[in-house]
Fold these 3 entries.
Entry 1:
Amino acid sequence: MNRALPFVFLLALNAPAFGQTVDGQGAVQLSENLSHYVGKQAIDKGVLKVSVEGGAYKIVFDFKALAGALPDQKLLKFDFAPYALLVKPRSDGSWDVSMDFSQSASFEFNGPEGLQSTQFSIKDGKGSGVYDPNLAAFTSATSSMAGMTMTSKDAKQHVDVSAGAGTATIAATKSATGGVDFTTSQKISSFVEAIDFDDPESGLKFPVTVRSPELSVEASGKGVRTKPLLDLLAFAVANEDETTLKANQAQLKSLLLAALPLWERIDGTYGFKDFKVESPVGNFGAAQLSTAFGTDGVAQNGKITYGIKASGLTVPQELLPSWSVALLPTDIDLNFGGANIDLDSMAKKAIEAFDLNQDPPLPADFGDKLTADFMAKTPKVVIGHSSVKNNDMEIALEGEMTFPGEKPDANLTVDVAGFDKIVESLQTAAKSEPEVAQYVPVALMVKGFGKTLPDGRMEWVVNAKADGSVTVNGVMLKPADPAVDDSVDEDDSSGEDDSGGEGAILKP
């Protein structure tokens, strides 16, 4: 974040650089442009300064001046060197940008856990790029560092983070549907995070160290509305006074609508190589570990996805019963999220309805109505194709859940390859581990409900209806709940055998 923060102020370079001469008058004009997005007080109090240096404009952001301007501050110590950017106009109207974000800083403050302190350093941090004011984005940029460290302490926790060399790139182009499309990539070597939890009150001490020789981040976005978001920022700065804000709320509503859908889609992935967690109970690890997240913008039929993927998993076997070791997964691929998410209608109704001259700005029953409208669009909780496996077995599942009323309506398909191996392992373990014997009949019962597929896998298609009924592979396992209304004949409300089809089709 400290590397990215100075670049935020470049969003204010919204005036094309074409034909500009780097001189004192240009510095005054650039300072004026910046004030629309950071406020005139930031300029007057020296938080932001613009000067001419070597044929470029030097923009300096002074964190100490900012800290001094904050009201009711609880900072006890603040040592943070200013960040400086060099920006130079290009003949095509864009700007060349360069900076040195090397830093060594520390601060202390009174937090919820008492005195908290943080120190961090960035060694040999450098960045450069080309900023296009028409896109309000970097068309290209790169950055690098030789290493970084951070230490954070409070009464119960001590955290040390370090990393080796790192690089990052970003590129953006004009989106065909409006806004900006971007891609960004970052890699950091030798990542280590040591957390030492020590609670004097409970006596609990638990040190944990996370290690990875390489951390990578990949992200992309489509149709990000950078310019309308800048307009909202300028509006917020120009209307800090409550009276002015109320008087100009029609303009605020117009700007909010113009910023929708904020973006069309944003996706990102964090990945670790040779991931290890060292703890007092043993070491956990994965040859590859990644998490992925994606979300549509404010859309009528939006989707959210989340995924966790790991291969080469290892856990301390001494923590587990010996019989369970053969059942441990070595690879997982979990995918879930949501669909049919109508945020567009909610946002537009809220923008239309709010009135800052009223207290509260929205009617008291507005939230309930909005929730009812949202649920009427039948949003879904989705389990994408997911799997857990080792050398002898694989469990795969996918399905979805809707909420046609207050109760869920769910379809879930589960496939298992190597189910007989699972039963065999339990039966073998039961001979020496009596407590395992209770699981054997359960496993056999589950197998009895299963359907054998041509490739030998077992499959269970589970349908749970909002009326309380549950079927497995079309067989009624539980009938519908009795009707609450005594006037309704129980025989008519005992439920129907509705399997909801064959469910999702899983890939082998």
Entry 2:
Amino acid sequence: MKVREALGAAAARLAGVSDTPRLDAELLMARALGTEREALLLSRLDDPAPDAFGPLLDRRLAHEPVAYITGRRAFWTIDLDVAPGVLIPRADSETLIEAAVAHFGGTRPTRILDLGTGPGTLLLAALDEWPEATALGIDASVEALAIAEANAERLGLSGRARFRLGDWGEGVDERFDLVLCNPPYVEEEAALDPQVRDWEPAGALFAGPDGLDAYRRIAPGLGRLLVPGGIACVEIGAGQEAAVAALFAAQGFAVAARRDLAGIVRALMLRI
């Protein structure tokens, strides 16, 4: 079977598992061929389908996320290595970077803090956006920090990025121009897609019965982490705007919202 035929058959099988079956099939095939998806589509469709494709497809049919199978996920202007044990970067989170870019305009942050950095998603995207900045990433997961450090090294950003094991902003004694944060915000009893529920780390997803526990921890100490005129960009879940905004407003923050590409309020911009 040729690659193009194998892709068609795989996409049909994946239709019951994924909202993007053809894309998933192409990414898995590119992985099996050891090439990029663009090269696959331009010049490899008439190659024989590799034997390695079948096992990759079986993993996806078992609801394993494509990013864990391929080990890579694109985000903003960078590609990140990911693995089980870290939250997979999502396009929705790019809203935080967009909000920060809009805020700084022609200026630029010099010091950036990423609370709950995971594989370095927001921190490394921000450093790629602002080449003169340096950043600190905090996470409670040793596994996530190891992947973040490896990503920084691979992207040539390790000289400007530092990572620390920690509990949100506790123990951080400096102030930053920009604080980025994508905390867990899913309600404990929420029904999630199996590829999320069964594969991604619960600690990066769930935050108490109402999904607000992490915000309650973060809000009281966030103000001391910002320089005068600094901004924090915090991700929220769909429908959480009023509740989360109230938590930060109670700490003296001025709150503005930014919507993602689907029109959902995805980020809160916080200023003292």
Entry 3:
Amino acid sequence: MMGAYGETPRTSLISDFRYVTPLYTKSQAADLIGVSRESFRNWSVGYAYKRMDGLIVAAEPLVTTAGAHGPTVPFVGLAEAYMLAAFRSAKVPMQRIRPAIRWLEENIGLEQALASERLMTDGAEVLWDFREHTADPAEREAVDGLVVVRSGQQVFRPVVRGYLQRVTYQDGWMKVIQLPGYERVTVTVDPWINGGQPTISRRGIRVADVLSRLRAGEDSHEVAEDYDLQVNEVEALLPRVA
């Protein structure tokens, strides 16, 4: 499929089993990108509730999942949720963002548009187009919270751009995410490295391996030497030792 804003990305990455095989539980995925587990569940499962006037309000899932038990979130789903977290960080209510995301998917021509590099290159323009087409003032305001016009061009606001700057794309798809919540050490997830588990990117060492030794009471200097890490990189993980 092709959207109105150019060619769709090559599909080699998104068709790879490592990209679409479930790697995380919903709780694990929520913790990785720093959102509440309830929010992640709403994004991945959807929700429905009954208003006082009897009207049923329902919202469809926005995050790709597979399976019903155990790990259900593939890397593509984590990537989608990461960008939803970026949009939410702009203080825009998710129910106002949902119609804009559907417009984004339809006009970019991809069901997983949030994980696509096209979000970074064309997304602001596509969302602004939605703003010009919707008659709902709240939806127009939602786009205003995500996109701003500078020098005659539509660009994402700084908070969203900050999230985009922490990802690396390959073949048109998000491949590496630098996780939030880590200071003085760069921790990434990449489905081709350590099965998509959090990794100290400079050395390719799983965070879980370092934490297991720290939790066992080993000295941070010894752990750093064994893994050829900087002591400050290891000590940056100490708040996670519990």
